[in-house]
Amino acid sequence: MIAAGLDPISQFEIHKLIELKIGKFDLSFTNSSLMMVVAVVCICAWLVLSSKRALIPGRAQSIAELSYEFVANMIRSSAGTDGLRFFPFVFSLFIFILFANLLGMIPFFFTTTSHIIVTFTLAMLVIGLVVLYGVWKNGFGFLKLFWPSGVPIILKVVLIVPIEIISFISRPISLSVRLWANMFAGHVLLKLFAGFAISMVTALGFFPGALGAIVPYAMTLALTPLEFLVAFVQAYVFALLTCVYLSDALHPGH
Amino acid sequence: MPDTEEHMQNLSDTERLDELSKKLNAKRQSLAPETSHASNSRMAEGFKYASEFSAAVLVGAALGYAVDKGLNSSPWGLLIGLLLGLGGGVINIIRAAQETLATEDLGQDLPETNEE
Lengths: 254, 116
What we know:
The complex is a heterodimer of chains A (254) and B (116). Chain A is mainly α and 254 residues long. Helices cover 72% and strands 4% of the residues of chain A. The radius of gyration of chain A is 22 Å and the shape is globular. Chain B is mostly helical. The two termini of chain B are 17 Å apart. The chains are: A mainly alpha (254), B mainly alpha (116).
């Protein structure tokens, strides 16, 4: 029982809460889906309840306004002012990832973003939007992204274009792997050190065990704020890179 | 600074407009967003470069492997794809580093406020 609780990987297991099968597809409602719903409900509650539009904002409203400013400035500085048409997209993405990460920090809560398929879906959403919007707005001009100027044509065809294409395809992968790896590694580390402290006590008895548990406990204590920081920074990085990629779609050819 | 009411009144409309828009621009620049990378932890930085590089290598190798499967040209597709992937990884890292440098403005003078 305790050994199962100490396993650092078991926290990522998916449990089906409501079975649902449509054709060949398994659309069961899992604990991961539950946490996504919780995140969305929290976000909606926060934004709806805080939008009283008081002239002197209360706490919730000023946090909402700050996050609006934060995301808007991020878009302006990395995708230009015309990137602001993507504000709803970037804002939802940022806030959703932030809430999913932060909710995962609550003990016994599942972290949705610690599954690569979730982060990969989010990344594909971004890249899909970049490609669709880029082609819709620029037509074939979007392909200038792979066709830099000022390079001899032979070199371009043989070397640069394949490399640029690989670099472009690698974007959703690096985007999703980064978020997933950070969340996954962070939670494994936390669980590992906290588990050490517990197994010290169970293995050595109360007094010597508690003495031995000081070091892993201190590590847990130090890692927890770091994980909160990572939760924020990764949501920020994801949103920032989304802006950078969107700026490619808005103005290709650098 | 010649921005007293009296001075403003002596100017023609266009001059006044220029003056005002200059002021407005200066104000805008001082309000421009300062991108804060300060909270970015070093571990996140490391993860960034690691994922940028490895993703490109993986994609290159996978594309090469797919070409091999399609054209029965094993092992050349995988080899060339891997090499191109390495190149793509280096490019990714350079771009990521450039983005970081651009937002951190290292070694720059204080922003000039009163310039067109």
